[in-house]
């Protein structure tokens, strides 16, 4: 039985439909990331599960307990749902110490003093902050505040924790460390988690499954590997990863193999949707799948390297591909490489197996 089950959820703000029949399941001990562009409905969906937003239709359950059911008129209050919630802003009381912030949910639930002290001690111990219990939030770093907010959500031992952009306020280096630590903490405690993020790398690193939303509907619900390597649509393919998009016209189809006419040049790839000869289509290839060679070969196209951009751990190579289509005489093709290359002519490998061809949207 799923720890969180959402069935056909609809939610509107006035005349605007924000969620349009969303369904999902968070399996026990698993992390599901809600990913999507701004306005896709991911935070609204999380808040609906928490009881902070009221849908107009659908059902939400935690195990055998119904939290919301439009048909039956059930809508449990947030505090009655037994879910841990970590807000994006952390929402720590500035005038309360770390101990008092973490203890607040227990006092709200009328726990005894001895039990509160014991649970606060254990919660802070689980995040390595037992020695900071007497400090105030302004005396903590951003990473420490994030951990205190998490301890407050864990202190009453919920089975499910909801996280709204939990790492967004941290600097880049700390985020890399925190996502590893946070995943290990959740899995070691045997919790289930529903996590909102706009960062696809963070979603892939932390989650067991990713639910990608697009304007209130589910674009794809899959494992991180599945959603990256087998995108179900052009939208999903473009959203995930760093891509080259090359538009053209379908010249020939042989099973999954497609020949795309790109301004008089032919690009081969694999079909990822219904295509027809003569119809417009879009080819996508990840930057890490593109490579440059000095010599010609299969799937290699003559291009001119214009720039090598140093990114620290790698270079981004920017090639000009001379084509003539619709008034456009050249297109940019980018690639990642360990080392920079000399500007000038190169043969750029666009492997057929890595070129995904979708119907144009």
Structural notes for this entry:
The protein has 361 residues and is an alpha+beta fold. It is 23% helix and 40% strand. The longest helix has 17 residues. The model has no long low-confidence stretch (mean pLDDT 91).
Which stretches are poorly predicted, pLDDT < 50 over at least 5 residues? none
Computed over alpha carbons, the radius of gyration is 25 Å
Mean pLDDT: 91
The strand count comes to: 21
The dominant shape is: globular
Strand content bin: 35-45%
Topology as a string of helices (H) and strands (E)? EEEHEEEEHHHEHEHEEHHEEEEEEEEEE
Task: Give the biggest beta sheet.
Answer: 6 strands, mixed
Helix content: 10-25%
Cross-sheet strand order for the largest sheet: 7-8-9-3-10-11
Structural class call reads alpha+beta
Number of helices in the DSSP assignment? 8
C-alpha end-to-end distance: 38 Å
Which helices and strands occur, and which strands form pairs?
Blueprint: E1 4-13, E2 16-26, E3 31-36, H1 42-50, E4 57-62, E5 65-69, E6 74-75, E7 84-86, H2 98-108, H3 113-126, H4 142-154, E8 160-164, H5 172-188, E9 192-197, H6 200-206, E10 209-214, E11 217-222, H7 224-229, H8 234-239, E12 243-254, E13 257-262, E14 265-271, E15 280-286, E16 291-293, E17 300-310, E18 315-325, E19 328-337, E20 344-349, E21 356-359
Parallel strand pairs: 3-9, 3-10, 7-8, 8-9, 14-21
Antiparallel strand pairs: 1-2, 1-4, 4-5, 5-6, 10-11, 12-13, 12-15, 13-14, 15-21, 16-20, 17-18, 17-20, 18-19
